[in-house]
Specification:
single chain, mainly alpha, Ferritin, about 80% helix, about 0% strand, binds fe (iii) ion
């Protein structure tokens, strides 16, 4: 068996987030469809479009490594998205739906932030400057999305969710 190195970890983690992003791309339209507030719908739609660009960036990173773009099942994102689907299902028609959807979406963003944070650092340590730049761009987008979601929660969804 070949020796496992930081390169191996970097490549495997890249596959993990590649799987996750493609899964997120499919989940976001369902979140947008389910959201009650037009602002939250718009936020999900905007992030769906950003996610397409993030997938392209990952493909560029695979190219830099000289590897084929390939995903590897990420049980974490599968579970996080499953919990989001539970919210959609169990809170349908309820005043607390949007607050629940924001919390689900933030769980996704936080997972992505840990992954991109690690990948960017590893890329730097491996001397993969262009890869680090690409990963850093996505990391910034995920953080911005997380902040926008917090604003939607604090500004509206949580208030609406409270009992009348
Ligand atoms: Fe993403
Ligand atoms: Fe994972
Ligand atoms: Fe994201």
């Amino acid at each position: 068996m070949a020796e496992k190195t930081l390169e191996t970890l970097f490549h495997d983690t890249l596959k993990d987030i590649y799987y996750a992003e493609r899964k997120i791309l499919k989940a976001l339209p369902k979140m947008a469809k389910g959201a009650q507030s037009p602002d939250l719908k718009a936020a999900f739609e905007k992030h769906r479009d950003e996610t397409e660009g993030q997938i392209e960036r990952l493909q560029q990173v695979f190219e830099i490594l000289g590897k084929r773009a390939q995903g590897k099942t990420c049980p974490a994102i599968d579970g996080i998205i499953e919990e989001g689907e539970e919210i959609l299902d169990e809170y349908k028609g309820s005043r607390a739906l949007d607050a629940g959807l924001v919390s689900s979406a933030q769980a996704v963003e936080h997972y992505e932030i840990t992954r991109y944070g690690t990948l960017k650092r590893w890329a730097e340590e491996l001397g993969l400057k262009d890869a680090a730049t690409l990963l850093g761009e996505t990391l910034a987008e995920e953080s911005k999305t997380d902040e926008a979601l917090t604003k939607l929660a604090v500004g509206a969804a949580n208030q609406k969710a409270k009992a009348a």
